[in-house]
């Protein structure tokens, strides 16, 4: 079995949907005030303002988006309103990565595998 969806809590669903679509080209399948959903390849990224079960606020989630051209993706993401936190850099685990922040402290690592 594979993980096919992830749900991330954000304060402003519409702003997060708009940024993820514009910055990373993810297809929007739902955009409502309390819930949004995008397709990032085979993964559904769901964005919720509130959880069906009250487990409190979550944090520490990073979405990793594998792309062909990290620099171009970073430029598009920054133009769409993402904040560049770090990169692009070559990591010691074999990727070129850049970390960006969007609404609600949503972090996306745009990366690609590179030869070591």
Automatic annotation (TrEMBL):
Q: Which InterPro entries match?
A: Glyas_Bleomycin-R_OHBP_Dase, Glyas_Fos-R_dOase_dom, VOC_core
Q: Which organism is it from?
A: Nocardioides mesophilus
Q: Where is the VOC domain?
A: 2-113
Protein name, as recorded: VOC domain-containing protein
State the Pfam families in the record.
Answer: Glyoxalase
The record lists the membrane-crossing segments as none
Spell out the PROSITE patterns in the cross-references: VOC
